[in-house]
């Protein structure tokens, strides 16, 4: 179980969950959404895929989110995202729950790992 409290502003939010990142996405012409509830929050982006055979689809993406303090709060956040996806006719949601949750928790929510990792699991920084 994560040791983080989303109501506590002393922990650093990930840049990709920040208001600044959402404003940047809006400047790129993307629609953004923010929501929160007891023990969870997220910032999400409605993205369109590149057309394939003349058709494109939409996805709702929450980079490094939703942020949740428990499996129950993560479930509520995913439910909120599902409702939002249906409202905006998105084909699927792409989430990167933060902090990391046990695979069994994610599987119980119907989530599965994408075969292609688009965010690095570990980042190395060399101070020059």
Q: What are the SSEs and their pairings?
A:
Layout (H helix, E strand, L loop, with lengths): L18 H9 L3 E7 L2 E9 L9 E5 L4 E2 L2 H17 L4 E4 L7 H6 L20
Parallel strand pairs: 3-5
Antiparallel strand pairs: 1-2, 2-3, 2-4
How many distinct beta strands?
A: 5
Helix vs. strand class = alpha+beta
How many strands, what sense, and barrel or not for the largest sheet?
5 strands, mixed
Order of helices and strands: HEEEEHEH
Q: Stretches where pLDDT falls below 50 for ≥5 residues?
A: 1-6
Q: Write down the oligomeric state.
A: single chain
Overall pLDDT level: 82
Give the CA-CA distance, first to last residue: 36 Å
Strand content: 15-25%
Question: What is the count of DSSP helices, taking H or I runs of 4+ residues?
Answer: 3
Cα radius of gyration in angstroms? 15 Å
> Roughly what percent helix?
25-40%
Describe the global form: globular
């Amino acid at each position: 179980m994560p040791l983080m409290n989303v109501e506590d502003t002393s922990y650093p939010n990930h840049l990709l969950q920040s208001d600044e990142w959402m404003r940047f996405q809006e400047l790129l012409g993307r629609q953004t959404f923010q929501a929160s509830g007891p023990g969870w929050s997220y910032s999400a982006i409605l993205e369109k895929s590149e057309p394939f055979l003349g058709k494109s689809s939409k996805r709702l993406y929450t980079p490094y989110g939703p942020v949740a303090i428990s499996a129950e709060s993560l479930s509520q956040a995913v439910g909120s995202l599902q409702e939002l996806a249906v409202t905006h006719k998105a084909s699927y949601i792409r989430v990167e729950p933060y902090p990391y949750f046990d695979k069994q928790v994610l599987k119980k929510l119907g989530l599965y790992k994408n075969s292609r990792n688009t965010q690095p699991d570990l980042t190395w920084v060399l101070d020059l």
